[in-house]
Amino acid sequence: MNSDYTQIIENAYKFVKPIKDHGKLATYIPELANVNPDKFGVHITKIDGNNFGIGDHLEKFSIQSIAKVLSLSLAVKFLGERIWTRIDVEPSGTKFDSLLLLETYKGIPRNPFINSGAIVICDILITHLENAREEFLEFVRDLSDIPDLNYSDDIADSEKATGYRNVALCNFIKSLDNIKNDPAEVLDFYFDMCSLEMNCEQVSRSFSFLANGGRKLSDGKRIITSSQAKRINALMLTCGFYDESGEFAFKVGLPGKSGVGGGIVALYPNNFTIAVWSPKLNPNGNSFKGMKLLETVTTHSEMSIF
Ligand code: GLN
């Protein structure tokens, strides 16, 4: 990889910042409408320990669906390969909150990164943990080395009050027998999980275990096996951006995951993890400037896996 990665990122940041984007905040979660739409930050954590950030990279945001990668990581620890009987590994080609394919595939979500799939993962965690809300938080605090990391009650409550679509998804899957616990309990945990708050520096550091064969960078502690890390990275590449996953692979060329809070995390195995945040979303629910920045970085460097 190019050694002047800091220059590449700084140049991309300065190039993308003034671009007029026509994206919109995710106002369907009312609390997210209060975020300053002009925030923009990026942070890269390299496997060799170097790191670099610019812009609003130290300001916390709602990581939303980025957390689905972490809940999947915890769930594979419990179920191992059996997890794939509850959930598939195929791109959906549909919006993140779509109900469409659930009937066709008898309640088996296409992948763990669309809402239906992440809701089933929450159900699995509730089955295997005494207190999923607390134990998931502990898991993320440990892998991120952020002892005061927390859920945002304001964001979670806001989504709990308006998340009719997720309520429909969870009940529909329950009717097809792929939710084993009380749907209200599963949804409660799902909304809490999505409300986790981190900044770009913390996201890029937290996800570095996936670029490091399943081990934490800070102390080498094993979080998941290298084979599990390989699979999760493959899923990020094929399913991390909903019906824009192909385009992200095409334009950026890295495994990644987005959230409607405007965050994106992407990584290059054995090399680096990068997190970017800009709250305005394109029509597919992915950060407009976040995608643009990553595309610019990988187009003008050798920082893509391809
Ligand atoms: N909490 C959001 C939802 O369930 C997460 C969606 C996302 O980030 N794409 O709608």
Overall structural domain count:
2
| CATH architecture name of the largest domain | 3-Layer(aba) Sandwich
Class by helix and strand content?
Answer: alpha+beta
CATH topology-level fold name of the largest domain = Beta-lactamase
Radius of gyration: 18 Å
| CATH classification, class level of the largest domain | Alpha Beta
CATH homologous superfamily heading of the largest domain: DD-peptidase/beta-lactamase superfamily
Query: In one word, what is the shape?
Result: globular
Q: Beta fraction of the residues? A: 5-15%
**E-strand count:** 7
Number of helices: 13
The main pleated sheet reads as: 5 strands, antiparallel
Low-confidence stretches: none
Mean pLDDT: 96
Approximate helicity band: 40-55%
Written as H for each helix and E for each strand, in order along the chain, the element string is: HEEEHHHHHHHEHHHHEEEH
Bound molecules: glutamine
Order of the strands making up the biggest sheet: 2-1-7-6-5
Written account of the structure:
It comes from Winogradskyella thalassocola. It catalyses: L-glutamine + H2O = L-glutamate + NH4(+). Keywords: Acetylation, Hydrolase. Belongs to the glutaminase family. This protein is of the alpha+beta class. It folds into 2 domains: 5-63 and 198-299, DD-peptidase/beta-lactamase superfamily (Beta-lactamase); 65-194, DD-peptidase/beta-lactamase superfamily (Beta-lactamase), CATH 3.40.710. It is 44% helix and 10% strand. It is built from 13 helices and 7 strands. A hairpin with a 4-residue loop joins strand 1 (41-46) and strand 2 (51-55). Helix 2 packs across helix 4. The longest helix has 14 residues, at 115-128. It is globular. The mean pLDDT is 96. Glutamine binds at residues 64-65, 96-97, 115, 159, 166, 194, 259-260, 285.
